[in-house]
Amino acid sequence: MFYILNTCDLSYQSSQRFSTVIAPLTTFSGAWDRQKAAHLLRRTVLGPRIDEINRAQRDGLSRTIDLLLSPIAVPPPPVKYRNDDDEYLQMGETWVDKSCRGTNLYRAHSLKGWYYNNMVQADRPSNIQERMSFFWLNYFSISAPNSDPRAMYKHIRLYQEEATGNLRRMLQKVTVDPRMLRCLNGDVNSKANPNENYARELMELFTLGKGPQVGDGDYTTYTEKDVAALARALTGWKINNYRFAKDDTPVDSHFDVNDHDTGDKQLSNRLGNVVIKNAGADEYKVVIDILLKQEATALHFCRELYRYFVFHDINSSVEDQIIKPLAQTLRNNNYEIKPVLKQLLSSEHFFEAANTGAIIKNPHDFLCSIVRPFKEFWHDGPMKDLRMRYELGGKYCDYIYDLGMEFLDPPTIAGWKAYYDSPQYYRHWISPALMQRRVQISTAIIDGDFHINGTRLTIDYYSFLKALTNPLDINSVIDEIVLIFLPRPISAQQTAALKETIMGGLEDKEWTMSCSDFLSNPGNSNYSKPIEGRMALFFVDLFSLGEFQLQ
């Protein structure tokens, strides 16, 4: 069974969804059921499990939002997981703060494995941290080929620590981040030869947004004069000579007072005709404060949040009734992001039917929504082996690459096209070839023949079925699986086809007896093989559905 995703349906929805009055930004007051809870978790957690959905339904909307947005510890750092490299480190010891003595080419692989294992790890609290980490990766879109993995780790950790923090603080930290300085030539921005790359992107992509051009070098939100002035204000920041250093040079940046332009910087009327006076090492903070005083910055940021969490289409109704109030909330809370997320994710608008299943999953979401509801492969004995654990994460990374997303390497400084390129937006994630590869990947993971280094890894169908409400009733099982994995109910014909796949024409009572034996005799292959075989066939078909590509 193979269902092609009809992206024309999404195009139609995009043009029709706001033909009537949209749901408001007021707090959702409808029936709080498992469908609503699952929708919230699909947009905030990477692949929610049934126990998480059930808990969210029991806890209610307000408490669930609070838990999702609550601070949690960042994951422990990546470690040495192979014996054949980095002779100066012990197995299991982290390399993120160690010099690059010895042979350490594995570090980039360690970082990848660590990152993807964190995304799918099922025993971490249900939280928005990893979802927001990817938001920031796309928002700032730093591409720095041949980076020292230590700098890449520091960059990711910043996004984890500040996941739902403060936009002002995030902009300050990113502006002097070593990878950003290198990516946009901030490290060569000097008083003798100002480089405008970062100043331009700081306004166009990270704060104000580029308005329509209304005159020579005038974009309504800023002018070319402002680009030149801000470039001068940002001079003097340099990168430590840490790249692959054999000594203890820290991965950091520093301010060179002798290379900073101390003169006055006159801004245009678009930025209030402000004159920036010399503030030395703190002048970049002055720049950010000026940009945050502009209403355009809050509006631009809230549009990006909306496209990431709700839908890409922002027409005049959404702009006036959703974006502008969110931007006001951001400004009223001194650019704290959590109040904005809470207002958006708790709103009638977020739970509007038109917004359910309206986003095509990016490759991260696609992969996590396959493995995380099964608690991935943590039950398997081989996963106790450190190298296996990391190389499994590396395998996930390879799959993501196949689906069009390079690890920590967005295609442009604007990020992935799915979040800015009109009119395609999310449809950039899907094509006939990419859909075929999605089916191949999901089949490889689910059909019982998934291997890492020759070791077979299997889905824990026993624990999965045990967690369902009524695992002995095949109709209840199918309905609950649809709730977990699909954003909307499916047709009676699709349900019947899925049931035929798992039952093969047998009567319902056959499932009841077989599943009862299976659950009563864990580890007994005589009872497990028939159920596991049926489940694998079922999920191969389920993950081929067009609806599974949506969230």
**Count of domain modules:** 3
| Most strands sheet | 2 strands, antiparallel
* Share of helix, binned: 40-55%
Q: Mean of the pLDDT scores? A: 93
Structure class = mainly alpha
- Poorly predicted regions: 1-16
Main β-sheet, spatial strand arrangement: 1-2
Number of strands: 6
Rg: 25 Å
The string of secondary-structure elements, in order, is HHHHHHHHHHHEEEEHHHHHHHEEHHHHH
Distance between the termini: 21 Å
Percentage beta strand: under 5%
Overall 3D shape: globular
Individual helix count: 23
Describe the structure.
- The protein is mainly alpha-helical and 551 residues long.
- The protein folds into three domains: 16-145 and 294-437, no CATH class; 166-292, no CATH class; 461-549, no CATH class.
- It has 23 helices and six strands.
- The strands form three sheets. A two-stranded antiparallel sheet has the order 1-2. Strands 3-4 form a two-stranded antiparallel ribbon.
- A hairpin with a 2-residue loop joins strand 5 (450-452) and strand 6.
- The longest helix is centred in the last third of the chain and has 18 residues, at 525-542.
- The protein is globular and about 85 Å long.
